[in-house]
């Protein structure tokens, strides 16, 4: 009786806990709607919490001094795909677990199948486990993109135990799982893709990778809002998280490292996805610039930084007299709210009458420009369309525009200028900076402006 009273007084083991089956969120009382993922009817009782302590175990491997650890076993191994190696920091690290997420049809499986074939051609065993296709379907795609190799093994499995058995039998240097949401373990409850199953599958694969020094590439699904499906714990467990992005109507694909324990997270890899496979693009700027014989009003070239890589992009603007009381504001590849702000700044600070015009502002090639440094190019393109005066040929412009009409400095001015000069441009309008624009290539003209009005007066 005394023990029970003490337990009741301490509050241990008397109150059940509840957990969301979708995201793993826990609460002390039952609720109809999850407080984390906002899903209805997913909170279930998980039993009474039991306070446990873990006793110290016998040490089987004594801790080493950091100076005595052999770091050569974790050296980068190049995949022979330069754009992928750039994002990863140099290549694949033995024992690393990499999560590649992206929307359906963006090319995740095609890229990893190409990686598998290239690594296999280097004389290493590669195991490709697919839970979404049959081995014959993967073979057909491999033949189409020329990704057939002697030491590349295929296994169509959805059971985690069978997949781990294949790993023990083949002992591959590289394991690719397509995808982590399709595997399930018979040791835990829940369907494949659920929070419990994804956590168990990821933990087992990570344990196998670390114990055998095997590089593991996991394909991950995404939700409607673009986040990685499954528990957030998955992103914490893996070593590298990469996002594969691209528009369905465009061949361009961008690979970004969201998390990287072995390299930078500000690098971007560019790929060209075609029927014959996927190839890295060392110079993708030409995809984002239109080729016109004569200058056209309403167009302006800018240089944006994707990670640490400068890319040229073209902004186009078209103004037409509106037949409605409320003019239309349409954008493509740009933030609509930011474009609306720039239109207001042009009207109030530069005295351009835009209140009765429908405005259409878009980028070329389907590229998305989210960097504030593209503000000046958007403003100049709109002003060019309004005055029907084309901008000078071989001119680029970049800079952030504020609500007061000022042009603010942006990072990487010298890198942007060097990229523009390499592609044949000779003039640039850049924001004024206390340190100046930095080194300017020979024969290249740079004009610094501090306000939007000054930039418009300089050009028009």
* Strands, count: 21
Question: Under CATH, the topology of the largest domain is which?
Answer: Rossmann fold
Helix-residue proportion: 25-40%
Calculate the mean pLDDT score and round it: 89
CATH superfamily of the largest domain: P-loop containing nucleotide triphosphate hydrolases
User: CATH first level of the largest domain: which class?
Assistant: Alpha Beta
The tally of domains stands at 3
Gross CATH architecture of the largest domain: 3-Layer(aba) Sandwich
Question: So how many helices?
Answer: 11
Strand count, sense and barrel status of the largest sheet are:
9 strands, mixed
Biggest β-sheet: strands ordered side by side in the sheet: 6-5-7-8-4-9-10-11-12
Radius of gyration: 28 Å
Structural class per helix/strand content? alpha/beta
Shape: globular
Strand % is 15-25%
Distance between the first and last residues' Cα: 91 Å
Low-confidence stretches: 1-13
């Amino acid at each position: 009786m005394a023990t029970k009273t003490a337990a009741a007084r301490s509050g241990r083991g008397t109150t059940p806990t509840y957990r969301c089956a979708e995201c793993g969120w826990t609460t002390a009382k039952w609720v109809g709607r999850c407080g984390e993922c906002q899903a209805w009817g997913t909170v279930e009782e998980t039993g009474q919490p039991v306070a446990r302590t873990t006793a110290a175990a016998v040490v089987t491997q004594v801790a080493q001094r950091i100076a005595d650890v052999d770091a050569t076993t974790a050296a980068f191994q190049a995949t022979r795909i330069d754009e992928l190696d750039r994002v990863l920091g140099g290549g694949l690290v033995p024992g690393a677990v990499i999560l590649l997420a992206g929307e359906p049809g963006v090319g995740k499986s095609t890229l990893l199948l190409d990686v598998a074939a290239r690594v296999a051609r280097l004389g290493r065993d590669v195991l490709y486990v697919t839970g979404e296709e049959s081995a014959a379907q993967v073979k057909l795609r491999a033949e189409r993109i020329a990704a057939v190799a002697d030491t590349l093994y295929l296994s169509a499995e959805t059971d985690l135990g069978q997949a781990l058995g294949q790993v023990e039998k083949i002992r591959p240097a590289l394991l690719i799982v397509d995808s982590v949401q399709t595997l399930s373990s018979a040791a835990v409850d829940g369907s494949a893709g659920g929070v419990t199953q994804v956590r168990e599958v990821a933990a087992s694969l990570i344990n196998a990778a670390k114990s055998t020094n095997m590089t593991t590439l996991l394909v991950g699904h995404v939700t409607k809002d673009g986040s990685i499906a499954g528990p957030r714990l998955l992103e914490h467990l893996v070593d590298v998280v990469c996002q594969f992005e691209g528009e369905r109507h465009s061949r361009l694909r961008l690979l970004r490292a969201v998390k990287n324990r072995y390299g930078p997270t500000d690098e971007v890899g560019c790929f060209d996805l075609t029927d014959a496979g996927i190839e890295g693009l060392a110079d993708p700027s030409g995809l984002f610039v239109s080729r016109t014989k004569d200058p056209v009003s309403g167009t302006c070239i800018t240089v944006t930084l994707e990670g640490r890589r400068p890319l040229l992009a073209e902004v186009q603007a078209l103004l037409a007299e509106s037949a409605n009381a409320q003019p239309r504001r349409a954008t493509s590849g740009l933030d609509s709210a930011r474009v609306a702000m720039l239109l207001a700044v042009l009207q109030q600070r530069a005295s351009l009458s835009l209140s009765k015009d429908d405005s259409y502002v878009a980028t070329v090639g389907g590229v998305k420009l989210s960097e504030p440094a593209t503000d000046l190019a958007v403003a100049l393109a709109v002003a060019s369309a309004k005055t029907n005066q084309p901008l000078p040929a071989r001119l680029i412009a970049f800079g952030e525009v504020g609500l007061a009409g000022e042009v603010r400095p942006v990072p990487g001015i010298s890198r942007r200028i060097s990229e523009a000069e390499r592609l044949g441009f000779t003039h640039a309008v850049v924001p004024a900076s206390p340190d100046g624009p930095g080194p300017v290539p020979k024969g290249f003209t740079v004009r610094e402006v501090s306000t939007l009005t000054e930039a418009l007066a300089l050009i028009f």
